[in-house]
């Protein structure tokens, strides 16, 4: 078992799980379907190709920098015919940073790592118009599952964000991982891709368990100066 | 020797004027000694330091051979009704210093070194600006100054190297001001003549006395440069 670590950072990201028709919403964290789609695209798979080996991977994501939600009221026109497209409302996460991990069989993870380093179709952050701002590949962590790999990963938030939290020596980050069987306190989300076939996309439910992990803040302010009273040793006048 | 502590009333504009300029503060401190004339050259050193513990908790410490009279500072930057300063006899404490004792210390200093940028150029006094170099500056001088900064236990060190000692560098400042006797005049290259640039750092830590005689000298004569401008005064407090 090894884990492939991915860094998802960009000016805009959009991770829809219940987005339909003209209202394209985003979740607070990358979805499994979004990341599996990114990996399948990197491998050059067709939309209609089988995904069962990828959906069987363990998936987890850590919110290193939550970002802010922005709304775009889009009145696009067709490039050639100038016919207006349906007015749509699109939501994005601006300035967010995530670390995602997929874990599973070593051979498959190795092939995915190769694919991410030399992708057939370029990776994007949930929506075609959202390119990554940093390298997506963070390397392999051998012998660990998703949870441990994300727990020991350093904090990837932007420098300005880390400095803003410099009063805190350690920061706790939300961690969303696949629920294991028998987990009673899991949320469910319909973001396990069964098929990306444009004629009939299908998604299955997935149990998600939320944890928090503590990471060190490299910009934490040093210790405060101790009290110092040299007169405490001396007698009166 | 005497150690004096003066609490500045930071609500008064006079206090702000004194705190904003080491030159003004130096004049105020020197004027507290009626027997020392400005033209005296062989008088023993007067050292002073400003401790900014909190916005309204600012102390001026003075170590001097004679008792100071700070009435004029009270008028500018003190309280009207209450006595603002206490002078303690420093001698008995200095006599008690013995080898092997440990103390907490505080020192505000002007850490500098002499460098040349290229071969053949005369060396130039240049300030250390990073906490690491400033700490190194103090550690290089500890032996001659009669003390040894205690080392941290292995498990409390936060860095693989550079964090071996019980030493904290904080309140780093840089200040620049003109010397009083000359009007600030711009030279051809835009630099002002008689300009004093001062980089200071405050060190807090724990030390062990190695050579009591040398440490007494450090505590009364000061450590490093810029002693007129509030640098070089080291004080000791009980190490908890």
UniProtKB/TrEMBL annotation, chain A:
Gene Ontology biological process terms from the UniProt entry? defense response to virus; maintenance of CRISPR repeat elements
The alphabetized UniProt keywords are:
Antiviral defense
Q: Name one Pfam family in it.
A: Cas_Cas5d
What InterPro entries does the entry give?
CRISPR-assoc_prot_Cas5, CRISPR-assoc_prot_Cas5_N, CRISPR-assoc_prot_CasD
Supply one GO molecular-function term: RNA binding
Q: Does the keyword Metal-binding apply?
A: no
Is Repressor one of the keywords UniProt gives this record? no
Superkingdom: Bacteria
The name on file for this protein is: CRISPR system Cascade subunit CasD
UniProtKB/TrEMBL annotation, chain B:
Disordered: annotated segments: 174-193
Entry-linked Pfam families: CRISPR_assoc
The record lists the membrane-crossing segments as none
Q: Which InterPro entries match?
A: CRISPR-assoc_prot_Cse3
Residues in a coiled coil are none
* CDD domains documented for this protein: Cas6_I-E
What's the domain of life for this entry? Bacteria
> This chain belongs to which protein, by name?
CRISPR system Cascade subunit CasE
Give the organism the record lists. Answer: Streptomonospora salina
* Source lineage: Bacteria, Bacillati, Actinomycetota, Actinomycetes, Streptosporangiales
């Amino acid at each position: 078992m090894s884990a492939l670590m991915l860094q998802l950072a960009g000016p805009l990201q959009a991770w829809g799980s219940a987005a339909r028709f003209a209202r394209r919403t985003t979740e607070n964290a990358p979805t499994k379907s979004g990341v599996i789609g990114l990996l399948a695209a990197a491998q050059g798979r067709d939309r209609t190709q089988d995904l069962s080996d990828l959906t069987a991977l363990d998936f987890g994501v850590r919110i290193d920098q939550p970002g802010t939600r922005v709304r775009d009221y889009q009145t696009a026109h067709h490039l050639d015919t100038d016919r207006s497209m349906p007015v749509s409302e699109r939501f994005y996460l601006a300035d967010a940073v995530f670390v995602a991990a997929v874990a599973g069989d070593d051979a498959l993870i190795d092939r995915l790592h190769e694919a991410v380093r030399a992708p057939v179709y370029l990776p994007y952050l949930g929506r075609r118009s959202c390119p990554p701002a940093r390298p997506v590949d963070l390397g392999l962590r051998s012998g660990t599952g998703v949870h441990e790999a994300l727990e020991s990963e350093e904090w990837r938030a932007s420098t300005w964000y880390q400095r803003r939290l410099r009063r805190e020596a350690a920061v706790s980050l939300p961690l969303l991982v696949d629920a294991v069987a028998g987990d009673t306190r899991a949320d469910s989300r319909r973001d396990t891709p069964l098929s990306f076939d444009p004629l009939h996309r299908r998604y299955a439910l997935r149990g998600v368990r939320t944890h928090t992990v503590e990471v060190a803040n490299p910009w934490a302010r040093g210790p405060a100066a101790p009290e110092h009273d040299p007169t405490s040793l001396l007698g009166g006048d | 020797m005497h150690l004096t502590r003066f609490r500045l009333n930071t609500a008064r504009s006079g206090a702000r004027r004194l705190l904003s300029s080491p030159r003004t503060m130096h004049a105020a401190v020197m004027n507290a000694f009626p027997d020392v004339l400005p033209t005296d050259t062989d008088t023993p050193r007067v050292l002073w330091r400003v401790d900014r513990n909190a916005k309204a908790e600012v102390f001026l410490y003075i170590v001097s051979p004679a008792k100071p009279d700070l009435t004029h500072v009270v008028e500018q930057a003190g309280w009207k009704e209450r006595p603002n300063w206490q002078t303690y006899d420093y001698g008995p404490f200095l006599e008690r210093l013995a080898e092997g004792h440990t103390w907490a210390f505080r020192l505000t200093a002007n850490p500098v070194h002499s460098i040349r940028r290229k071969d053949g150029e005369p060396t130039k006094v240049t300030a250390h600006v990073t906490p690491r170099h400033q700490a190194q500056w103090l550690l290089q001088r500890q032996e001659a100054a009669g003390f040894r900064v205690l080392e941290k236990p292995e498990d409390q060190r936060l860095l693989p190297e550079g964090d071996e000692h019980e030493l904290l560098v904080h309140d780093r400042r840089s200040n620049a001001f003109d010397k009083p006797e000359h009007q600030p005049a711009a030279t051809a290259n835009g630099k002002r003549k008689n300009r004093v640039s001062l980089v200071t750092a405050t060190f807090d830590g724990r030390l062990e006395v190695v050579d009591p005689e040398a440490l007494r000298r450090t505590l009364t004569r000061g450590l490093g440069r810029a002693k007129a401008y509030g640098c070089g005064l080291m004080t000791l407090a009980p190490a908890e």
